[in-house]
Amino acid sequence: MSEHAPHQQPDGVRPARPHHKLTGDGRRMREVLTYSRRGSRFTPRQQQAWDAYAERWWVPDEAVDDPGFALPALFGRVAPLIVEIGSGIGESTVALAAARPDHDVVAFEVWRPGVADTLGRIGEAGLSNVRLLSVDAVWSMAHLVEPESLAALWVFFPDPWHKTKHHKRRLVTPDFARLAASRLAPGATWRLATDWADYAEQMVEVLDAEPLLEGGVVERWAERPVTKFERKGIAAGRAITDLAYRRRAPA
Ligand SMILES: C[S@@+](CC[C@H](N)C(=O)[O-])C[C@H]1O[C@@H](n2cnc3c(N)ncnc32)[C@H](O)[C@@H]1O
User: Fold this and answer.
1) Number of C-beta neighbours around residue 52 at 10 A
2) Which domain holds residue 133?
3) What residues flank ligand 1, with Cβ below 6 Å?
4) Distance CA 245, CA 83 (A)
5) What is the pLDDT of residues 171-184, one digit of tens each?
6) What pLDDT, on the 0 to 100 scale, is given for residue 162?
7) 159 C-alpha vs ligand 1 centroid, how far in Å?
8) What is the pLDDT of residue 2?
9) Which of 54, 84, 137, 182 is the most exposed place for a label (fewest CB within 10 A)?
């Protein structure tokens, strides 16, 4: 088994999802997570979308504890698989998935009101190629996504964690870059965008150093819609950086 093959115990049980790990004497372990718990209250509109669509397109967290759980099986067809991490309210997810009816898109978002908004957007757009999970995407990339299985990976405006003491919570680190690269199919592209200059620099430094990847800063990806976070960044005078890195083909 390679370093980044999905980790399963010999009995087929996946390790515990974050927030469920306990120490030997039963205490909850502290973990460095890339997100903080935000409010989970729904607006009436979000509740309506959740009630209408969650059962169809949102995967309950416990489902991934089943040793037989597999992402591609969520779609009932064979199609290239794309992962988006931190899909927020689904503005990019839905626009990009609508333009790719022949691809399946799994969006990871731990913030439930955002998931509810996304469900509403999927419903309005009439898509059948998006599924949402609220399980930690870092854990999921390690334990649910098969090596060399992704046709693309999208990470737009990841939480910047701009205080120096919080930098360790940023998603794009050398360890995560290695893991993410291992999940891309050879030739597949990881697209990223951020409105924080020092995070953009960190992304370039980390991704340039990852031997499985090649790429760098690119022109704004025209297909990517302008999201709430991009608008906020622009309004605050921050420059937007888009990056694209390709998984190298085997030598
Ligand atoms: C700043 S928002 C950007 C949302 C969206 N991509 C956009 O461009 O508008 C980042 C989102 O990533 C989510 N997130 C951060 N770390 C995550 C993780 N490990 N797994 C799933 N979602 C995560 C947060 O909940 C948050 O909604």
Assistant:
1) 14
2) 44-247
3) 34-35, 85-88, 91-92, 108-111, 114, 136-138, 156-159, 227-229
4) 15
5) 999 999 999 999 99
6) 87
7) 6
8) 46
9) 54
Identify which of 54, 238, 72, 78 has the alpha carbon closest to the alpha carbon of residue 132. Answer: 54
* Whole-number Å distance between alpha carbons of 226 and 166: 27
In a mutational test of the pocket of ligand 1, which residue from 19, 40, 110 has the highest number of ligand atoms less than 8 Å from its CB? Answer: 110
- Specify if 9 maps to a domain: no
Question: Which tens digits make up the pLDDT trace of 194-238?
Answer: 999 999 999 999 999 999 999 999 999 999 999 998 999 999 999
Tell me what pLDDT residue 1 has. Answer: 40
Mean pLDDT of the chain: 92
Residue 60: which CATH number? 3.40.50.150
Tokens of 215: 């790429």
Number of domains in the chain: 1
Instruction: Please indicate, yes or no, if residue 26 is contained in any of the structural domains.
Output: no
How many CB atoms are closer than 10 A to CB 32?
Answer: 11
Q: How far is the CA of 156 from the centre of ligand 1 (A)?
A: 8
- Helix axes of 112-125 and 91-98: crossing angle, nearest 10 degrees: 30
Measured from the Cα of 84, ligand 1's closest atom is: 6
Is residue 21 included in any domain, yes or no? no
| pLDDT greater than 60 at residue 10 | no
Check residue 233 and give its pLDDT: 94
Model-level pTM? 0.92
Distance, CA of 138 to CA of 199 (rounded, Å): 18
64-93 in b/e form (b: 16+ CB < 10 A) is beeeeeebeebbeeebbbbbbbbbbbbbbb
Contacts 24+ apart (CB under 8 A), 8-11: 8/67, 8/143
Whether residue 176 lies inside any domain: the answer is: yes
